[in-house]
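hey m, so remember when u said the tokens were messed up on ur end? i reran from scratch. heres the input so u can diff it against urs
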Amino acid sequence: MAKDTVRRARRRLPLEWLGILPFAIFAVLFLILPTMRIVIGAFQTADGSFTFQNMLDLNTPSIVNAYWTSIKLSLITAGLGCAIGFAMAAAVVFGGLPKGVRSPLLTFSGVASNFAGVPLAFAFIATLGPAGLITIWLRTEFGINLRGMGFNLLSFWGLVITYLFFQIPLMILIIIPALDGLKREWREAAAVLGATGAQYWRMVALPILFPSLLGTFALLFANAFGAVATAFALTGPQLNIVPIKLFAQIRGDVLGNPNLGFALAFGMIVITVIANTIYIVLRVRSERWLK
């Protein structure tokens, strides 16, 4: 009888694994194989022979400037996203706002954190572009000329504002569970020992949340660094960032070099892997504290 049970369990095991089969196929076809193609192509010439020249070609002023601009864009949007998102999340969790605010905020954040690409670019152009709704309204009703003041949505700082639309909600989604993990006993113990609210946050709460904050910063950095559709739809090829330069190389412009594009992509992979690794390690450390 026991042997029959074991045999039936063995027969059922493959069927249980069928549930993750679609995900496994998707991951292999659209993640693992393309990544392997990029890594291999970064060290190949057009005829398929091995070379380091593609990697050496990354050390050109235009490409170095593109990497620096992308890193600067990612650092700024990650920093602002963390600061604003943390303030909003803390206001919801500890600020005494009505309980009905939390659910709509989380719902909106879940949608907005995935709202990117051409639709996001079009929404901002229609709102803050040269002929956008807010731009025209400010000019006609209050005499405020954003263009005359130097604001240009189709620029680096315009892209920063656009990226914040999905960076801030992503921060809210990630940091609210960490804020919920702060135990009330810790605050009460600090109060009993005579600590003020500011001292509690400076000496207890923020040190505990620091791994989560730093890890989320790394995640937001990687999120902004790899975004291409929004940047290209908003600014076109005029902004020199790595995703746009990579797109120009891969699609076959006059000066396009697919293997140099692979090298650009390989550099992006290295940077995003480092950022995501930092996020995962720090997230694990923060979860240990909050358990």
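this time it looks ok to me. The chain has a mean pLDDT of 84. if urs says something different then somethings off w ur setup not the seq
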